[in-house]
Amino acid sequence: MLELSQVSKLFNPGTADEKIALTDIRLKLAPGDFVTVIGSNGAGKSTLMNIISGVMKPDYGEVLIEGKPIHALPEFQRSRWIGRVFQDPMAGTAPRMTIEENLAMAYARGKPRGFRLGVNRSKRAMFREQLQRLGIGLENRLRAKVGLLSGGERQALSLLMATFTKPQILLLDEHTAALDPARAELITRLTDQIVRDLGLTTLMVTHNMEQAIRLGNRLIMMDKGRIILDIPEERKRHLTVEQLLGEFEQISGHQLSDDRIVLG
Amino acid sequence: MIGSLSGAVELGLLYSLMALGVFITFRILDFPDLTVDGSFTTGAAVTAIMISHGNSPWLATLVAFASGLAAGACTGLLHTKGKINGLLSGILMMIALYSINMRIMGKPNISLLGVDTIFASISPLVFMLIVVIIVKLLLDAFLHTDLGLALRATGDNSRMIRSLGANTDSTTILGVSLSNGLVAVSGAFVAQQSGFADISMGIGMIVIGLASVIIGEAIFGSGSVFRATLAAVLGSVVYRLVVAFALRVQWLDASDLKLITAIIVIVALVLPTARRSVKARSAARRRSLELAAAAAAPKQGGVR
């Protein structure tokens, strides 16, 4: 479904600040794979997300979706296949527009945007039904401005907007990191439910070790721009946080350091 | 007095299309577009030269609209593809348009006296009322289409709308273009109503547009698109009423108008920010005192 071959990315090449962000990344996701990604600060997790979504272009290597090379396309053209939820709850929604208008913009993903009404009666009914699945009462506030919602509510809405058109690939970039524990738990639960229901091929970066083990069917670990460990489903089922951290130290030769790390 | 009142309303409506244009860039795209000073004159120049050469005033107005669209598209291209700062791309286009306008007109002033304009057979007040209502409603409808939503989101959260598949370069160019199209039509109507086009008639237009949008929002609110566009139109009318009143004051000259306009905009921009920060500070103070009092209160238990 999603394939990265020999992807490399360098920041500030040729200057004193040169930094290797990704080196020779090879990754293949089968349809329906739900892969969690962990790693130290600066391991290249966010760069990986940005390269897949098109915010950045790789210096070398290819990104393919369903066998089609897409790494030369700009971000807005890739969004036909890729849904994304950002870490910042403010990033995924437009605050001065209403809930239904935000959903209408997500609904138009991958379609030409023309002079059809963004929100009509049948779309509104569909939006209401979709919002009910979140179970946080947003279905009764369709015409409220998104800026009035809490961070958790906005992130739940972003998650719905990223997924309800069933994109081929779902990218989750530490999307629960900026929320308080209760809200983070809600979003985690919703994520698991939505990804399962729709069978989305998903790549999720997280700093929560317990979450990385509990969710998904595969876990990859990154360090210094490389994928250093790829744990398949059978092993992942019995994995503990201690084992995971031990494994990281053994392979990378240093401790997993992430200033926001949550062990679970 | 009644005469000058209806005159002010008429002017307000004539300039309200310009205010709607400024609303699109300033409020929707969050892009302070100074092209307006040039494109207003372009609209007037194109109309004046075409009408004085015997073309239909309707056709002339339509061509003025197209020339405004083109001018705006240039600014949009400079900003998005040329990656030039928004303010600077507007200023560059404004300066370029001065020369272009001069080329169009051939001389600094063209008179339309004794030539048939749109207003030869119809009262400007009635005509403009109808036109403004139609344009406002069309704009409202457009801003609720898929494309219109993408345009609004470009100013509100461009990162989001890109991740949802809209090309924000295109929507920015579209918005700036549409804005200047409206500004040019406003210039076309003003030239026909006043009976001349002048090379310097656009100077300070952006500030008048901003004043109209800001005054409108302050008085009529901006909760929804419908309200916000209505506010821009009515703000333009209120601005002209204020001006008409100011001109009646003995010791003020007509040339003081631009200063007054600038002061109105400055006050309108500074006041809400200042008020907000004062409010926030007093709220924070009150809340800290409450918390301190709660912490200092003897814990007696029992009452909960």
UniProtKB/TrEMBL annotation, chain A:
<dbReference type="InterPro" id="IPR050166">
    <property type="entry name" value="ABC_transporter_ATP-bind"/>
</dbReference>
<dbReference type="Pfam" id="PF00005">
    <property type="entry name" value="ABC_tran"/>
</dbReference>
<keyword id="KW-0547">Nucleotide-binding</keyword>
<protein>
    <submittedName>
        <fullName>ABC transporter ATP-binding protein</fullName>
    </submittedName>
</protein>
<dbReference type="InterPro" id="IPR003439">
    <property type="entry name" value="ABC_transporter-like_ATP-bd"/>
</dbReference>
<dbReference type="InterPro" id="IPR027417">
    <property type="entry name" value="P-loop_NTPase"/>
</dbReference>
<dbReference type="InterPro" id="IPR003593">
    <property type="entry name" value="AAA+_ATPase"/>
</dbReference>
<dbReference type="GO" id="GO:0005524">
    <property type="term" value="F:ATP binding"/>
</dbReference>
<keyword id="KW-1003">Cell membrane</keyword>
<feature type="domain" description="ABC transporter">
    <location>
        <begin position="2"/>
        <end position="249"/>
    </location>
</feature>
<keyword id="KW-0472">Membrane</keyword>
<keyword id="KW-0813">Transport</keyword>
<dbReference type="InterPro" id="IPR017871">
    <property type="entry name" value="ABC_transporter-like_CS"/>
</dbReference>
<keyword id="KW-0067">ATP-binding</keyword>
Automatic annotation (TrEMBL), chain B:
<feature type="transmembrane region" description="Helical">
    <location>
        <begin position="259"/>
        <end position="278"/>
    </location>
</feature>
<keyword id="KW-0472">Membrane</keyword>
<keyword id="KW-1003">Cell membrane</keyword>
<keyword id="KW-1133">Transmembrane helix</keyword>
<feature type="transmembrane region" description="Helical">
    <location>
        <begin position="58"/>
        <end position="79"/>
    </location>
</feature>
<feature type="transmembrane region" description="Helical">
    <location>
        <begin position="118"/>
        <end position="139"/>
    </location>
</feature>
<feature type="transmembrane region" description="Helical">
    <location>
        <begin position="228"/>
        <end position="247"/>
    </location>
</feature>
<feature type="transmembrane region" description="Helical">
    <location>
        <begin position="196"/>
        <end position="216"/>
    </location>
</feature>
<keyword id="KW-0812">Transmembrane</keyword>
<feature type="transmembrane region" description="Helical">
    <location>
        <begin position="12"/>
        <end position="29"/>
    </location>
</feature>
<protein>
    <submittedName>
        <fullName>ABC transporter permease</fullName>
    </submittedName>
</protein>
<dbReference type="InterPro" id="IPR001851">
    <property type="entry name" value="ABC_transp_permease"/>
</dbReference>
<feature type="transmembrane region" description="Helical">
    <location>
        <begin position="86"/>
        <end position="106"/>
    </location>
</feature>
<dbReference type="Pfam" id="PF02653">
    <property type="entry name" value="BPD_transp_2"/>
</dbReference>
<feature type="transmembrane region" description="Helical">
    <location>
        <begin position="170"/>
        <end position="190"/>
    </location>
</feature>
